[in-house]
Design goal:
Blueprint (H helix, E strand, L loop, with lengths): L3 H15 L9 E2 L12 E8 L11 E15 L6 H10 L5 E3 L5 E4 L4 E2 L3 E2 L3 E15 L4
Length: 141
């Protein structure tokens, strides 16, 4: 079950992705929402949280890490969507700080990178992985 902090991180990452202006304009397939692409390429997004880290020595903060995976999906045989992959990597470049609710922020900790493309029956998928970290305040109660 996701915590409030994890939900605010997900919302901040999704808001930042929504702010990406691509050339040409690109649709986004969000998790657990029906989607039938009108055009190619399109983006398919998911957040993969990892286990929260240990609290800081003073016990006041707990780090949260994960991967935002954005799949760049093209029609099979449509070529490698390098322009869109580059735009995505630039938008989530290392060092970007994304501010979300309650003053929390998400920090992009490494350069985003595309992994090996793969094909299904009708599409070619290029996963782009964006590693992030955030931290939450630990309640003293």
């Amino acid at each position: 079950m996701a915590t409030d902090h994890e939900e605010s991180v997900r919302a901040a990452l999704f808001d930042h992705l929504t702010a990406l202006t691509t050339t040409p304009a690109t649709e986004i397939a969000w998790p657990n929402i029906s989607f039938d692409p009108a055009t190619y390429p399109y983006l398919r997004v998911n957040v993969i949280p990892t286990r929260p880290g240990m609290m800081t020595e003073d016990g006041t903060r707990k780090p949260h890490r994960g991967i935002l995976q954005v799949d760049v999906v093209n029609k099979r045989g449509g070529g490698y969507p390098s322009g869109l992959v580059d735009q995505l990597c630039q938008h989530f470049r290392q060092g970007v700080q994304i501010f979300g609710s309650a003053g929390r922020f998400v920090h992009i900790t490494e350069p985003p990178y595309p992994t090996a493309p793969f094909d299904d029956e009708t599409e070619t998928i290029v996963p782009v992985q964006v590693r992030y970290t955030s931290s939450s305040t630990v309640s003293s109660s």
